Amino acid sequence: MVGMTAKLADAGLSGKRPFSSPMDSALAEARAAAARGEVPVGAVVVDSKGRVLAKAGNRTLELRDPTAHAEILALREAAAMRGSERLLDCDLYVTLEPCAMCAGAISFARIRRLYFGAADPKGGAVEHGPRFFGQSTCHHAPEVYGGIGETASSDLLKAFFAARR
Ligand SMILES: [Zn+2]
């Protein structure tokens, strides 16, 4: 991921973690999801001024909805708040690399930047699997910054799945 590292440096994201706050909120959502028995993934949508428009954790079990991933719920709430299906100047923070469904939704929502925590080699669709944003059928790709708050995100997931064994 040489390209990604270069991008991070360009954006000034290395060093003092200036963007830690929205990812901390996403982590809090992930912890709350774990407490509900859901896979601990959290997502936050912020506008161009850094204001939080929406935050959510996974609710697939609670809602009996296979599409109720944190990213989808946060995008829906942010779009409702904005009164628009397009979130042009908004950024999404999520604790885990998005799956194909969520990558599709992020693209359709025209999200400006995607920040994610832990990579997901088994179910991710950004750096793994279909690499959704790199496909010719993907008409809007956000800027992608991976590995933000990665350790906390992956520790949470590991603890959750270890406890279920
Ligand atoms: Zn997803």
Which helices and strands, and how do they pair?
Layout: H1 2-10, H2 20-35, E1 42-46, E2 52-57, H3 60-63, H4 70-82, E3 91-96, H5 100-108, E4 113-118, E5 143-145, H6 150-164
Parallel strand pairs: 3-4, 4-5
Antiparallel strand pairs: 1-2, 1-3
The chain binds zinc ion.
Summarize the structure.
This protein has 165 residues and is α/β, with parallel strands linked by helices. Helix content is 40%, strand content 16%.
Strand line-up in the sheet with most strands: 2-1-3-4-5
Distance between the termini: 33 Å
Rg result: 15 Å
Task: Kindly report the average pLDDT value.
Answer: 90
Cofactors, ions, other ligands: zinc ion
**Would you count the extended β strands for me?**
5
Helix percent reads 40-55%
Which structural class matches the secondary elements? Answer: alpha/beta
Q: Sketch the topology as an H/E string, one letter per element.
A: HHEEHHEHEEH
**Unreliable residue runs:** 1-17
Instruction: Tell me the β content.
Output: 15-25%
Helix run count:
6
Molecular shape: globular
The profile of the biggest β sheet is: 5 strands, mixed
Please explain how this structure is put together.
The chain is an alpha/beta fold. Helix content is 40%, strand content 16%. A hairpin with a 5-residue loop joins strand 1 and strand 2. The N terminus is likely disordered. Bound molecules: zinc ion. Zinc ion binds next to helix 5. The site of zinc ion (ZN) has 6 residues, from helix 5.
Index terms:
binds zinc ion; 165 residues; alpha/beta; disordered N terminus
